[in-house]
Amino acid sequence: MRKILEKIDAKYAEIRYMKIKSNQVVVKNGTVSAVESSEEGGFAVRVINGGVGFVSTNSVDKVAEAAQLAEKLSKKRDGKFPFSQEKSYEDFWEVKEKRKIENFGTEEKIEFLMDIDKSLSAPMKIQFLHDKIIKKIYVNSEGSLIKARIPRVEYYYMMGVIENGNFEQGYRQYGITGGYEILDLWNFKDILLQEEKTLRKVVKAKKSPEGTFDLVVGPEVAGIIAHESCGHPSEADRIMGREAAQAGESFIKQSMVGEKIGSEIVNVVDDPTVPGSFGYYKYDDEGIPAKRRYLYKEGKINEFLHNRESAGRMGTKSNGAARSSSWNREPIPRMSTTFFEPRDYSFEELIEDVKRGIYMKSFTEWNIDDIRYNQKYVGKEAYVIENGELKEPVKRPILEITTPGFYSRIDAIGKDLEFYAGTCGKGDPMQGVDVWMGGPHLRLRNIRMR
Amino acid sequence: MDIENLKDKLLKMNLDEVSLVLEEREKRQVRFSNNDIDISKAWLESSLNVFLSKGKKVFFTTIKQLDKAEELLEKYVKMIENLPENKDFYGINPEKQSYQKSKIDKELLNLDLEWIAREAINGAVEKGAQRAAGVIYRDYVKRKIATNYNYAEDEMANVDVVIRAFNEYKNAGQEAITTANSGDLEDPREIGQRAGTVATLGDNPKDGKEGKFKVLFHPLAFGSLVSYSLNLASAFMIDSGMSFFADKLGEKVFSDKFTLYDDSTFFGSGHRIFDEEATATRKTVLVEKGVVKNYLHSYSTARKFNTHTTGNAGIIMPIPWQAVMERGNKSYEELLSQIDKGLFIVNLWYTRFQDYRNGDFSTIPRDGIFYVENGEIKESWKSIRVSENMVHLFSNILDMSKERIWVKWWDEVIPSYLPYVLVEDVNITRSTL
After folding, report:
1. B39 with B164, same domain?
2. Residue A50 to chain B, least CA–CA distance (Å)
3. Residue A161 is part of which domain span?
């Protein structure tokens, strides 16, 4: 790879090799719907001159051709293209599985999923169990050479129950960077049995009342909010407009660092170094060491997520947020594990002085506009709070709120911290990357709910 | 790679059925933002989609290391012995197929994509946009399939042009077209002009209002609703119960104005002549005058549902290829004139369901939200949401335009040929803090 790199006429060039070995089993309503296994590998060459050229191929024989073509494409634009200059590194890093992926065979996976399926009486249930081992080699014209081995396992389910013509659905994703120790971290059978119980309770519940309430959201809801309305708008490529025709832009401008976005007790972090996290990495896909980043700090906009391109354009250094979902995708600024930092309230303390409130423990439908300002979250498991006590379950409370509206009404933050997995979509072609999102319980005052 | 030879080798390894799809692909992309090109990309890729079965035991994979294909396949053949039976599997299509002739406009392969990008940008700026972002895509694929029962080859090329133009208030207009005909791309500047015109018309938008409105959806916006719906018309989703089409076959549940097809025989970007089990593709009526007529099937799901395959077999589940909606008799302007107090919405994004079974969802308008009074655009809005039910929305279709446009976009809009669609009683909500 280095020999090919040396022949490229470029201000900056890199070659990435990635090999992904993956397996998936799908069980739907008592039937093994699919058993899949795949191995793929390929190279991506990125060359910077007056413009940027990117070519990928899955044929070893075509890497030199790809490099030549990338150089040619990089010269189709005549101008300046300031990628940030960074230190070079040579390293190998890996995450070791406690329970090796290779040792958990297809039959065991099927048995595991079918056992859960049989324990449920819900009429609609789909489960996916997916594992992969990613091997990477990264070289660039600044002298970096980084090799990595990254195992990941994820579990996903969808479930639906019907009672008297009413329907409720649930779905959730769990994932780690590691091996089948994921089964020691979460008892999925218990989780799904509990989910079925919850859905059967909610399907009979009354619609959540409309009006102004204090709102307590659970870690799952806090996580999606941290991801959608802090992580995404802090991505520097969005702020610069590079994603404008796809995933959108940001309400944050480059000049807004230091501006107030919410209550001063709020810190939101993106941290790729959380051990075992689904989006864990030691170096990003541009060879920059990973580090913890405070996106919102003490209620203020604090830091953006950068790759070399966005950092160069903004006249700063990369903070190691470049990720590429596969060998045929360019590295762009992405989240890893995005979460509200916990503080000191117990759940009981959070609700004890709530006279009239809603507790939204988990969510179902959600969306947010393309500048990450107006958002909606619909509760899945939710309860009324009255005079400091949890009361009856309610169906699908709706929170429609702006980003500063949400963050500025947070008046207390729990001391608990939970993470949930997700596959974050961005880029063109689409790049789904593995992430965690989470937080503690949060309390907000005087929120309009539907 | 000789896939017929490979298929024969596999069948000698004690398998019952094999489907191999070889795809050789050359893709090009130019991305731009802030009126300038950000990156030029190319992909030189080949892949082999593999389906193997022995009795009711089935295995899927996609091999992207073709030099290791035989070695990997030997490993997978051994795996199949230990798999459980899939009781929903009834074999791949054994009937001899007769295919449409493959069709390709090779002029598309000679187009200068960077030139198209620059022309589109210039067009948007000419119409008053301050800046434009977008993507030009070209996909050229040669596809071969070999099964126990059939062999076919296809060759296809298409180009997508997406441009989002912004005015001084950061309000946007967007065009997202797709085509398999080079003639549609003779004047890319005009595509940019359309996006620029909408952006300029958008001016400084006001906060929108909540309520029930008559809404004229641009084909791009309606493409989002149709694309999500077609995915839920897959027999896999019907079988899971997670679809608002479930248990509705033969019932009139939508407006009698609503007729929707999955039609990959129509020459457009979603054109293809065979599915993943070599069934010849066809035009499938999903909804006819409001009546649910069919679901999307592979041979296996069709057997389970006691019907015929629709030629939509994907790797795991039946998938849609290309949406085509029946048009009306009136022009876009005539439809707009039928709105006393309502909205014209150009694009939607981030569609999510809280209830797949009944169709409760919400989605966010963007790239042109206009309040219309007495048939005329009065003002531009922002920050609203369509909070609706898909059955209710499709039931309230009043009319469609006679014009249809090819649309396809990043946020889950599959290649679609659609009219402008007028819908009444659409629920609009917004953030309250």
Report:
1. yes
2. 10
3. 2-204
